[in-house]
Design brief:
single chain, 76 residues, alpha+beta, Arc Repressor Mutant, subunit A, two-stranded antiparallel sheet
Length: 76
């Protein structure tokens, strides 16, 4: 299992915010808006879902991602 700090990289926090703001209806739509490959994005979303940061909802042939957490504090 990866440490939470690694899972919540700057890139993944930006992804969570984008999901919350745009509410993409499918993985393909999210891939287009991020410029990331669907396979890589799918793997990232599954990891984020495992930690509870995103919910993956299956609708027919499509998987929709819903951000559950988007606000993060830096505590040093």
């Amino acid at each position: 299992m990866r440490p939470v700090a690694e899972v919540l990289s700057d890139k993944n926090r930006a992804l969570l915010r984008l999901i919350a703001e745009t509410q993409p209806s499918s993985l393909e739509e999210l891939a287009q808006s991020t410029g990331r490959q669907s396979r890589n994005l799918s793997r990232t979303l599954r990891t984020l879902a495992h930690y509870g940061f995103v919910e993956l909802q299956r609708h027919n042939r499509y998987v929709r991602s819903v951000a559950k957490v988007t606000d993060f504090e830096n505590r040093a």
